[in-house]
Amino acid sequence: HDMAKRGLPVQILSFLLLVAASCVTPSPAQRAISLAHMHREAEGVVLLRAAIAKHPDDVDSRRVLVRLLGLTGDLPAAKKEAEDLQKRLTEGDPSGWLELGHAYELSHKFEEALAAYDTASSAAPGSPAGPLEGGTRCAHWGEVDEARPRLEEAVKRGANDAEVWHTLGFVRLQQKDADGANEAY
Q1: How confident is the model at residue 3 (pLDDT cuts 50, 70, 90)?
Q2: How far is CA 67 from the centre of its chain?
Q3: Contact 81, 62 (CB under 8 A)
């Protein structure tokens, strides 16, 4: 009975330590996204710039910063940040250009967005990410003639999931290519 009394504080302390350890502070990128959801994008930009000043290699913060700058309409800053991000990535990772494309889309600059996705495609010729993003976006915009070559290039580069095949099938069907659509589906 006396042992049980002494064990109870230890159990409570252990439980509290477990709970405290499971409470993780959100990253600057996560906090900035949360601010954006509350329509406080400018605060998110300030937060991310401060985080990047302390930790220049914080790629997640840089990615979110590019998008938030696009959302706020500061496209020259978004482009500069995308270029800075791209310099910090490993060769073959087109993420900086993809983020710039998203920033342009958030500002409703669709031609510029497509150009950024094409830059991603050129910058990383071994990656399906650029043509996949550009092709998928074109398909969503109803630009099937622009979508098809990009999606087919993405498949050639190794994109192989249900979404890419479905989108390619849809595009081919819109172009009245039933055999091609059937092949994709």
Answers
A1: very low
A2: 9
A3: yes
What whole-number distance in Å separates Cα of residue 64 and Cα of residue 36? 10
Q: Which of 63, 141, 125 is nearest to 98 (CA)?
A: 63
- Count CB atoms within 10 A of the CB of residue 86: 21
Coil/strand/helix, residue 28: helix
Report pLDDT for 25.
85
Total-model pTM: 0.82
Token pair of 60 as six digits? 């997640």
* Per-residue tokens: 66: 């590019």
pLDDT by residue (tens digit) across 99-113? Answer: 999 999 999 999 999
Question: Quick one: tokens of 127?
Answer: 């990656």
Length of the chain: 185
Residue 84: name the closest of 61, 109, 107 by CA. 61
| 88 CB-near residues (< 8 Å, 6+ apart) | 56, 57, 59, 62
> Dihedrals φ, ψ of 40, to 5°?
-120, 50
How far apart, in whole angstroms, are the C-alpha atoms of residue 51 and residue 89? 18
Contact 65, 52 (CB under 8 A): yes
């060769």: which residue's tokens?
A: 91
